[in-house]
């Protein structure tokens, strides 16, 4: 389809151009003509090669690794659009970096998630569209509208299509119970929780399973898989406790350090992720299955542009 509104424009920086192109294809508009590059000393420059005067502009940029470069690219792009007289600047951040630094866990800690929100607003953004924030209260760090999309419906649709039987959804810790319960509701499955405790500093975690999981197919769900240490420990504990097979699901595949090898060596049958972050590892695990968020992001952009509700996007058929 072709979207017939010349005032809607979509641009991207360098973090996830493939996803940006898929979003543009879904909406039915060409991707904006712009180049963001770095000088030899690391300074970032953006060149817009088309007019945006009076347009509603959407910029797709995940602030994933290299986090600081991608964040700076976004800020420079927003500043360029503001100075080029764009009517509105909407930043689409599929993965919001620094989201895990959302509070003072210790004395003299920074709250970097708030600092990033301040930078985005100061650069000139009018709206943020993001997905599965690590801490939902980050929405309140902004004084501009934030549309917070959910990855659970996409993951639930995939697991529904597999028509698995005797499923139990598992939260890897107490903090992820709300997310796990949403997936369990979509799949009409029971919920279990992995209870992790450190009896004393530098002593291995003791893991207990809360819920009936023996003989069932377990799906561990989290928002982020980073080094994969926690989720693989959880999988091992589930297998030892008698699950039939175990899957993992997450929205944001950070997959840093030893994550890929840990997943490959783990008892997971499949690790289902989305493309909010591109999986660029030279030797990706054969167990990883990637789902696209482009239709969800594209539909959200259309609905925001046409000023209609986006709450329908939190449901599945």
UniProtKB/TrEMBL annotation:
Q: Where are the transmembrane segments?
A: none
Enzyme Commission number, as recorded: 2.7.6.1
Record: active site: 196
Cofactor(s), by name: Mg(2+)
Catalytic activity field = D-ribose 5-phosphate + ATP = 5-phospho-alpha-D-ribose 1-diphosphate + AMP + H(+)
Write down the InterPro entries for this protein, in alphabetical order. Answer: PRib_PP_synth_CS, Pribosyltran_N, PRTase-like, PRTase_dom, Rib-P_diPkinase, Rib-P_diPkinase_bac
Positions annotated to bind ATP: 41-43, 100-101
Query: According to the record, how does the cofactor bind?
Result: Binds 2 Mg(2+) ions per subunit.
- Give the pathway: Metabolic intermediate biosynthesis; 5-phospho-alpha-D-ribose 1-diphosphate biosynthesis; 5-phospho-alpha-D-ribose 1-diphosphate from D-ribose 5-phosphate (route I): step 1/1
Which GO molecular function annotations are given, in alphabetical order? ribose phosphate diphosphokinase activity
According to its UniProt entry, what is the function of this protein? Answer: Involved in the biosynthesis of the central metabolite phospho-alpha-D-ribosyl-1-pyrophosphate (PRPP) via the transfer of pyrophosphoryl group from ATP to 1-hydroxyl of ribose-5-phosphate (Rib-5-P).
Query: Which family, according to UniProt?
Result: Belongs to the ribose-phosphate pyrophosphokinase family. Class I subfamily.
UniProt subunit comment: Homohexamer.
Protein name (record): Ribose-phosphate pyrophosphokinase
